[in-house]
Amino acid sequence: MSKIANRIISIPERVKINLEGGIISAEGPLGKSEDLIIPSNLEITNQENKLSTKSVNSALAGTYNSLISNLIKGVVEGHESVVEVKGVGYKVSLKEGKLEFSLGKSHLNHVAIPSELEVKVEAIDDTVGNTLTSASTKDFSEDNYSRKNKDYAKKLGELFAEKLKKENKEKIIFDRNGRPYHGKMEEEKKSSEVNGKEKVEEKNNLVSSEPKKEEREDRRAFRSHIKSETLANKRVVKVTKGGRRFSFTCLVLIKDEEKKAVAFAHAGGKEVIIAFRKALRQGQKKLISYFPTPVRTIPRDITVKYKATKLFLKPTPPGSGIKASGALSRLFKFLEIKDKKKIVGRGIGSGRGKTSGRGQKGQGSRKSGNVRPGFEGGQTPVYRAFPKRGGGFKAKKISYQVVNLEELEKDEKITAGQVVDLSQKKFPVKILGEGNFTKNLTIKAAAFSRPAQEKITQVGGNFQVVEKKKK
C-alpha cells in the first residue's frame, strides 16, 4: 500500500474537485460523484491539479488514494462490469429479466439485470488484437424489440451482421471450435446416427471384421494427416479381495494438419496400446481449431486455473522465445510456434556446462554456499562441546519504599528545623515531590527525586543521600 499511497493523482481538465470541510467529491461530464468523508488522520493536498494523500497509516492513505482515483474515473469514463464466458457448451440466456448462466454445474446461476443493461458483441482479429466492429443493444431503441430471449438475440445479431457487411467482412469464426453454438452437439448426434446405421447394416449383411486391402489403404490415407504424441503414461493398480489388478492410462496430444486443429485426450485400458488407441479416438472428436500468426506466437494473454494450479501464458516479441514446461513446448510445436530463445550462460545448451563453469558447490558456485554459521560438518560444534561457566556481573535492582513530601507536611509531630532521618529503615526510602511542602527540614534518605530536591531547597531545607550499610 505504500507505493499506492505515494501515487500522484492527475485531475483531468473536465473534472472539478470539491475539497471542503473534510469531504471530497468530483464533478465531471457524466455527473457528480457521492461525497467521500476524509478521516481526521489523513491529509489531502491539491496543487496544480494534482492530488496527493499523506498519513501515518500507509494502508489508509493507499485505500483513499484508490477511492479518489475511482471517483475521478466514474465522472469521466463511468464504471462497467464485464463477464466473459469461455468454454464449449457454456450458455448465457435472458429469462424474465434475469441472466441465466449454464456453466456445466448441477444447477443454474441467476443474476438480476440492472435497469440499464447493455449487451455487446465484438468481432476481434486475433492476429493483430484489434476490434474490427461491435454491436450493442444501445444502438437501437427498446421499442424495436421485446424482452424475450429470441427476439433480443435476433435483433442484435442482425445489427452485428449489417455492421460487418459495411466493413466488407463476409465470414467470421466464433470462438467455439469454429462453429456456432450447439453445432458440435448436432454434429455428434448426426455422427452417432450414421454409426448406428452402419452397425445395423454390418450385422444384417454379416460383413467380415477384417477390412479389405483397398479399405486399409483408404484408412491409412485418412490417418496420414493425424499426428499424435504421448505426453504421459501411468500404471494404475486397483487392490481387490482377489488381488491387485493392473491397468494403464495414457495422455495423448493430437493434431489434424488438414483442419489446423489440435486436441488432447486421457484414457485408460488394460494395456498401454489399448489406452493409447482409446485416447486417440476420443481426441479426434474434440479437435479445436487454431490460427497460425505471422509472428509465430500466441495472440493474447491466456490464464487457466484448475484447483490449486494456475497457468499463465504471455505473448512475447519475435525472437524472445517460449519459456514453458516440456508438455507445453510439445503443444507449441504442434501449433507451429517455433521461436525459442536459448538461455545464454546457464544449462547444458549454453556451451559452458550445467553450472556455467563455476562448479556445483561452495562459495564460488552459481548458487553460492548455504552453510550456517557454527556448522562443523555434522560433528558437535565447539560452542556446544564445552560447558558454559561463570557469567557477567548483574547489578541487583533496588526496590524503594516511597514517601511523598505532602505526608511529611501533614504529620503534626514533625516541626520546622527538625532532622528527619529515614536512612535507618528496614527498606531504603525514596522521597518524592508530590503535594505542597512548607516546612524547613533536614531530611536523610536513600534517594530523592528532582522535584523533591527543588521543593526542599526552596523552603530553606536540606537533604542528604545516605546509603544503607550492608550487613
Using only C-alpha atoms, the radius of gyration works out to 42 Å
Report the count of strand segments.
Answer: 24
- Poorly predicted residue ranges: 176-184, 341-345
Please outline the major beta sheet. Answer: 4 strands, antiparallel
> How far apart, in Å, are the first and last alpha carbons?
63 Å
Which range best describes the helical content: under 10%, 10-25%, 25-40%, 40-55%, 55-70% or over 70%? 10-25%
| Secondary-structure-derived class | alpha+beta
Number of helices: 10
Mean pLDDT across all residues, rounded? Answer: 75
Beta-strand percentage range: 25-35%
Shape: elongated
Pfam families: Ribosomal_L18p (PF00861), Ribosomal_L27A (PF00828), Ribosomal_S5 (PF00333)
Keywords: Ribonucleoprotein, Ribosomal protein
Biased composition (Gly residues): 346-362
Organism: Paraglomus occultum
Provide an overview of this structure.
This protein has 471 residues and is of the alpha+beta class. 25% of the residues lie in helices and 27% in strands. Strands 2, 3, 4 and 5 form a four-stranded antiparallel sheet that branches. The protein has a four-stranded antiparallel sheet with strand order 13-14-15-16, with helices on both faces. A three-stranded antiparallel sheet has the order 1-7-6. β11 and β12 (130-136) form a beta hairpin. The chain is elongated, with a radius of gyration of 42 Å. The two termini are 63 Å apart. Residues 176-184 and 341-345 have low confidence and may be disordered.
